[in-house]
Amino acid sequence: MDSNVRPESMARISTPELAEAFISEQMELLRQQIGDKKVLLALSGGVDSSVVAALLIKAVGKQLVCVHVNHGLLRKGEPEQVIEVFRNQMDANLIYVDAVDRFLDKLAGVADPEAKRKIIGAEFIRVFEEEARKLDGIEFLAQGTIYPDILESDGVKAHHNVGGLPEDLQFELVEPVKLLYKDEVRVVGKALGLPDGMVFRQPFPGPGLGVRCTGAITRDRLEAVRESDAILREEFANAGLQGKVWQYFTSVPDFRATGIVNGKRAYDWPVIIRAVNSVDATSATVPELDWALLKKITDRILSEVPGVCRVLYELSPKPISTIEWE
Ligand code: XMP
Asked: Of all protein residues, whose CA lies closest to atom 4 belonging to ligand 1?
């Protein structure tokens, strides 16, 4: 039987009981596969890699080595949450790599969206490879591949793309959630005790905030993206919209507009709020958000985020617009 095909008899994991049964079964299988060897995982803090990390910590403890690469394009608080949950609460073996300067230096002056994506992907593999080479005795590479990844591509998760490692670093793969759908991964994550903020996280692109700081990324504009996004997420959570709106974020384009800041004429950036509902990201609609909520978010962004003098709410559905700005 092809191990990449989900058996028809496999029940949809929809309850804590079914999740517990899956976890017990996987612990057994992971222990059999890994034995007393070491396994490496690129832990982004996204749902899939977090669930794989939690499963492996339960199954093989410190034999798992997690590498969290901070490329500077993560959302506010994300690297801190990964360290808090995995190192402090779960006592995982976690290597935190501060690669912020490295990524931002490589990206400086690069305006083309696909060139930016390529740099981010290639640099990620390079950083991960460097960390892997420092470690002895690694025989396995864990990946957060899920069933839609297998159905839609060749099974390699584009944004976790550690499949691009050189020949001498080809480890045997460990992919414990590869037959699960996203909703099942979340049920398993909840049963493993991961925080709701991680388990019910909205989709987040591999190149992170890099595609929301359009054109050539500058550090100050990137901070405007990060801070405005944090305000948007906080206000959506306060309004009970977390998990109800499919994806929401801010983008800051690389042009300026006039405003008046502290009585003086300013020439600052606009912040664009994007909120969409979707099932599988191939099409998306724009929800009719409460006006008072939009006003509150606007007021906060204008008063709290340096370098910003305008806030826009985007009304475009997909198609014709894509969800991200580049
Ligand atoms: P678009 O902008 O194409 O986005 O309508 C559809 C969904 O994919 C996410 N997205 C990406 N995810 N790497 C990723 O892993 C990427 O380069 C990328 N670009 C877009 C986007 O956030 C949305 O959920």
From this structure: 323
